[in-house]
Prior knowledge:
The complex is a heterodimer of chains A (268) and B (162).
Chain A: H1 5-48, H2 50-75, H3 80-97, H4 99-114, E1 122-125, E2 128-135, E3 139-143, E4 149-153, H5 154-159, E5 162-164, E6 170-180, H6 185-198, E7 209-215, E8 219-229, H7 233-250
Antiparallel strand pairs in A: 1-2, 1-5, 2-3, 3-4, 6-8, 7-8
Helix pairs in contact in A: 1-2, 6-7
Chain B: E1 2-8, E2 10-16, E3 20-27, E4 33-36, E5 44-47, E6 66-75, E7 85-86, E8 95-97, E9 103-105, E10 108-112, E11 119-123, E12 135-138, E13 148-150, E14 153-154
Parallel strand pairs in B: 6-9, 6-10
Antiparallel strand pairs in B: 1-6, 2-3, 4-5, 7-14, 8-9, 8-12, 10-11, 11-13
Amino acid sequence: MKMDISKLNVLLADYVLPFFGICAWLIFGVWVSSFLARLLYNGLSHRLGADKARAFSKTFKYLLILLFIVSLIRGAGVDITAILGAAGVAGVAIGFASQTSLSNLISGLFLVLERPFKIGDRIEVDGSDGYVHSIELLSTYLRTFDNRMIRVPNEMLAKSKLINYTRYPIRRLDIDLSVSFNGDAARVMRILREVVVANPSCFNEPEPLIFFKGFGDYSMQFLLAVWVDRTELMATRTSLLKDLKERFDRERIDLPYQRMLVKDDKNA
Amino acid sequence: MSFFVTIPVWVRVQVDLPNHVTLCEFPTRVLSKTWFGHPSEDGEICYALTTRARQEQAELTDVVGRAICPLLLENNTHEALAFAQLLLSVRHMSVYQTGDGRLWTNECRLGYTGSFYPASLTFGRTSPEQAKDAQLVSEPREAPTSGLTARVIANAIFKQQF
């Protein structure tokens, strides 16, 4: 079979080469966009923080890719205005279909600008508690203490009550204590103060607070509030409770527990 | 106003290989931690130290295991300076030792420029005037730069009622 060289040339010129050209241009466009986005991220992350820098660099990258696609379409001789006109109608349809995604996207931008938290913070939102792993365009990822990953839509973060446990470097540790009625309240408060003063992890300032809260059903109620380095919160709580128990045992101060008296009615 | 503050020192164990290798460090006295500033604003976690602010060197009694820091507090305003806490940046202090075994730090100068502005911090580059012949024992952990400013003078201590 004789191959028609002229038909092959036409095939190559009209279809194959343009196809490879488009692919090459797209690959080049994606590569350049990624490279420039990475440069932008490196430049902005020190000034604005990792989360803001990531949001800006990703937006920049997708805009660049869009520009490459538009230039490709124009280069192919397609009328952009006709496409934009059609896109106007398609835009309305897509908008209705993707309003949740758009809401997440806009909420994400507001979160990045407002900064109620940053990467590495521990937050609690809608019952989910964990460390912020990353802030993406549509959602934020939390890593839980037991190493699970929770994906929280940005819209939920924007409209829910959010607790940031690591916003400030110090935290107040509140410990409720109950002491039996046969104890001396003034003596108990003196002992609490001595235990706190002897623990170097409890801050001198702000001053520890010791309150006699009142009388419970079975005991006298006290509140011990000390300020600590938030990175040492649990360790200080443990050491403080241990010190308190040892001191109470030494001073023979009872920590009461609920007792139930059972009466046999047979002999009534 | 100038006075002396005695600061407990840390002991560093190191080996002198071609490069100094620090094996461990430990305090000669465990100080309680404290917070300088408002809990929800910029501040710093510090070690708490009380001082009688002796103005005469002869009045210093508690010097064993401590470095004597000559502190100069300058009021560069026309208003009265009342302070409750001072924050000493010990990381910028060198340690010197005199022939009698006493430890000294370089002089620390705090310049008060008003309650709304940070104070200026200046550290002496040699042993203090009170210990001119002292030998350098250790360099500061962080070399002080010129033009240092920081919130180091607190005119009141934060009190939270509940």
